[in-house]
Amino acid sequence: MTLELRQAEYALRGRTRLHATSLIISPGSVTAIVGRNGAGKSTLLALMAAELRPTSGEVRLDGELVNALSARELAQRRALLSQDQAVSFAFTVRDVVAWGRHCWSGTQQSDQDEQIIDTTMQEQGVVHLATRVITELSGGERQRVHLARVRVQRSPVLLLDEADAALDLEGRYHLAHTVRSEAMTGAAVVLVSHDVHRMLTTADRMIVVADGRVVMDSSVTTVDRTQLAHALGVPEL
Amino acid sequence: MRRPLIVILLTAVLVLAVVIAFRVGAAESSAVILREIRAPRIVMALMIGAGLGLAGTVMQAITHNPLADPAIVGISGGAALGAAAVIFLGVGFGSPVVAAAAVLVALLVAWAINLISRTEGRSEVVTLVLAGVAITAFAAAAVSVLVSTNTSPAIRSISFWTSGSLALSTWSGITSVAPFVLVGVVIVALISGSLDPLSLGDRGAQAAGVDVTRTRVGGLAAVVLLVAAGVSVVGMIAFIGLVIPHAVRAVLGPQHRLLLLASAISGALVLLLADTAARVAVQPVEIPVGAITAIVGAPIFLVLLLRTRAQQGGWA
Questions:
Q1: What fold is seen in the domain A3-84+155-232?
Q2: Hey, which residues 73-102 in chain A have their CB within 8 Å of chain B?
Q3: What is the ipTM score, two decimals?
Q4: What pLDDT, in 10s, does the model give residues A74-86?
């Protein structure tokens, strides 16, 4: 599924958070969005996820306007994971993972719910946590559970908003592995991250956002490190 | 499975409680008293109690707030004001008009707290509770002005009703309240499938495909319908909506389909037992049932509060 921004712009209370941006995110690719805090990374991702409606321009998924889709239709097409997602009540890990199938309830796809949940929990290494209560887990364990949750959605677009922030080294390695294998099976993956070094080895493409503008958009193999460091506000990488 | 068994057991206890409630009371109970006073009182207790249990569970789910309760956020207070206002205008106690007025004002309150307590799509726990304090204080003061400036016998019965009592239950009161409660139950059934993933918070749930606005608006409407019409007849009965979902969740876990069913049964059971105690504890006088639920409910709530906080490591 191809995600496309056409001159998408977002302003809030007279301040432009993201200036008109045009991008195409292709299936089978991993795109990293990097930049300093407040640069507009999360705004860009929120526009892609249809959490925000562009104040001008448009965002399309395979030609369909994302803001015209219902929450359920969106969830079938794209999954979104933010950093350390809180759960209000003492649900078990398996309950939480199963919520990823909510958007398919009542459709033919729901026949495979149990099987998809089982295999995904295995892949994410959270089977041993299945009956544990989510609120009692460590931050890293919780994030793995939520990663499993958004993966059982089986959506062709996967958006991760600083999903690695609460993870340790092993967790980040694991996340990178997951993201690569998702792209291998045809998903379009977009990650917002501060871990630029890891993104250089995980992603195919790097988009740098500064002051509400895309200032760099390059393949990671040809990225100019000096220019990248400059855009991120550091002397070197 | 063990959990469905607990629900069956609860139902059995409820049936037993109904039988006991019907039997105990003044020794010279005639057939007329049983049919026209005790039976409607029992039915009313079951209906209002089940409604309070359901409403508390829904309220806590849609606000992601274990401290939410229709009385705490001001919905019950608004209902009391709506009912008192039309009774003041001369409409008979227990009529469908009074129930409708209670529902109408409570809907306004629900709409207002929904606006007040939300900034940029998030529900703020503290604002919600404090807005409820303000609304309840305002409504109570307005009711008190209405009562003290009016000498009609109808408005006098309100003083009995402000502390919460089932003593004025009649069959006609039940037929006034029941349609509202029924619609509330139907709405709860319609949104019940979305309540579990709603625990991800509004943003997370929306991303996972839950229509958060529809669930929240439906949930608030259901809470109003389940609680407000009942308030117009029996007054404000606190703590059932707050404590029951916690107690049931501690035993059955947080999954909402089972939780809703068990909360309805438990709410009915607890209110019936409390009302039976209110009738017979210090005969021949009666204690307002609202006082009993508060005396028993408030300490239980404190214990649950501390325990849940310890388990969850505080609430976000």
A1: Rossmann fold (3.40.50)
A2: 74-76, 79-80, 82, 85-92, 95, 99-100, 102
A3: 0.91
A4: 999 999 998 768 8
